[in-house]
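Dear colleague,

Following up on Tuesday's group meeting, I ran the structure prediction for the two-component complex that the binding team flagged. I've pasted the input sequences exactly as they went in, so you can double-check that nothing got truncated or mislabelled along the way. The structure tokens for the whole assembly follow below. Feel free to forward this to whoever is handling the docking comparison.

Inputs:
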Amino acid sequence: MLNEVVISAQALVKQFKGQGRIVTAVDSVSLEVRRGETFGLIGPDGAGKSTTTRVILGLLRRDSGTSSVLGFDSMRDVYEIRERTGYIAQQFTLPGDLTVMENMRFFADLHGIPRKLQKSSIAELLKFAGLTDFTSRPAGRLSGGMKKKLALACSLIHRPAVVLLDEPTLGVDPVSRREFWNLLGNLRAEQGLAIFVCTPYMDEAERCNKVGLIYKGRLIAQDTPAGIKKMIPGHLIEFKPARFEAARKLMTGMPGILEVQTYGAMLHLFVDEVESRQKQIEAVLEGQGIAWSGMRVIQPRMEEAFISLVRRQEASENGQ
Amino acid sequence: MVNDTLMPGNTAGLAGADPVVAENLTKRFGEFTAVDRVSFQIHPGEVFGWLGPNGAGKTTTIRMLLGLIRPSAGKLSVLGFDPVKETKIMQAHVGYMSQLFTLYNDLTARENIHFYGRVYGLSRKALARRQEEIIQMAGLEGRENTLTANLSGGWKQRLALGCAIVHNPRVVFLDEPTAGVDAISRREFWGLIYAMANKGTTILVTTHYMDEAELCQRVGFINQGRLVAIGTPDELKQTHMRGQVLEIDTPEPDRAVRLLKEAQMKKNLPIDEVALYGAQIHVVVPSADEFLAPIRQLLESEGLLVNTIEWIMPTLEDVFISTVLDPSEKR
């Protein structure tokens, strides 16, 4: 059933209490993930990504709200959920002294898969993960990228309908990161799995078909990557000023400039209208004798959108 | 303090001299060649990205530049010094920060800066002034008396950078300084990098984030110990991308990927890579002009609606992967 809701959270709250204070790690989060969707929960460290994931899986108790996986309640139906979901915890490590094959068998046994069935499904998963030639290598001696792929294969051994991955590409180099995401793409395209991924990497958000931006426990936006980028008003002009700080001060608060972001040696300006504002910017820079190069209009990426949305959130909190 | 004008071989004062020069730099560990005849220069005040997969030889290169390990062969010069023979003098002018930076959690931010300043041999008087400069530079005002243990990841990272440059080095080596740090903190950190570079500091930085690599003025790609490409990000996109990228927008991306993979497997079309990007698909082909129409035709002949199909600029990540991955030995 396409469009079936696989993961659901409504007004989910999780608080941690200790040392006389209460920290709200997950603050009224509502989200939905449907079959065939890759949902990215994106946000900085400490924003509440892992806690949200653990509450949904029933590994932590929620304080209020509802959450369910495949219609099973996170708190009541923990075992039903566990049988039907794959999960890779953050910095999860496989037994390093077991070989690739032994690891696969170990996880198959844990899930109570009969030995007879194991043979074909393990072979299939190893092929999928590109590990067929490494079956007798101890997991501890695999490269970082291969370890992640093995972890993914192990999490799929019981043919789950949904997988939840908590920062699965942490510390992995770009080549392996791309390969890992290609595997996730294949899972979605070929098997229609629902995939829930937590990541701090904005470029990975572009590989999801739905994204939730989480910040300080709150979901501040939830949409397709294209939809999120559309939430940012105006157009983005990029240029490299010769005197960076002076130019930045000049541009901040200038009429028609909605927001100023820095990007290495470059300035990113969100403007309400391109043509007239570009002329205005050039005139102001010239007037102050500041040279510049490479002025052009660019498409905002997820990262620019995220920074802008977070700032807006902070401004609205501070304003009240 | 060291008086560099008296130092033999120090050409750092000469206009135009490159602060970092490596010629046929090689490091072997037994049978294994970690760095293999690598040559490059970094220009004064440049932000140079040193990129490669895990185990490519990035950190080994930095350790040689720092004089921590001896090259097996080749020449190396940092600020005109020989890192092997003039280690101590060179280190007085070089800063280093790794992803495993060590800060004392039970000291405050200011105390950490003070401690590192003393280690680098700054006088108390010089340090009193320098300390405040660092606090300002790193944006730590208001947090200077906070225990380091209570600082968040982004603050700690900026404090670590402050400690690494307390002695005002002219060259700074940053080994994955932003690993595990969120997007907003990474932006701020890159602001600091450019603030240093604008004051003439030369910077070598390694990173796993290709979007950060785009921020470098020049980058070198190292793979299996060899330098495989060097240039500005824009140059590399034009010269080192094998094939061109087509972006396809369709209401049925999953089915389109299956069709394209099938065509790739059956070798009906010379497709290098098919990857799902959210609702879109990226396909790498030898020529966008030549294969745009056949790909559109293939999808439409299966009854698939193609909203748009267009040739897009590769990202530096596309180029990196294309450069380090030989198609004959895809992992």
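Chain B has two domains: 4-231, 242-313.

Cheers,
M.
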